[in-house]
Model the fold of this input.
Amino acid sequence: MRVVIQRVAEAGVDVVGREIARIGRGLLLLVGIEKGDGEGEIAFMADKVLHLRVFADEAGRMNLDVRQVRGGVLSVSQFTLAARNRKGRRPDFTHAEEPGRARELYERFNSLLRDVVPVAAGEFGAMMQVRSVNDGPVTIILEKTGDEPGCLRSAAAKGGSVVTRNA
Done:
């Protein structure tokens, strides 16, 4: 599982020219579900997103999480985050979870977030136009495994370690 997190002043999603989701201040999440992901990864990532301190406190330091600033989350499913491109020039998407299972896990992830903060979501499997006004910019990448250089192990979850990498 990979989640790209962007701190935003606002973000929205359009499908076929119609806005289907929008948030103000909060987090834009690009969510990639991979084969082998399960409840452990989903729960860990949801908890990590909810408690990630990327918003400034009164002193200007990143000490507050999305809950503390009463922010929202815009969650967008993006299977291309599972791409591998070590060989050739065409991305390999064989690590992406099958659509039915990926949808189930993506919806469960959103449900866990929605229990705590307002969540808007893109349309699973649709061609979407995602708009965002990045705030900072602040972009954090959370991954299930840490085989790429430059990754820092942040915690362990069922099914593998989880790493955090700053972009």
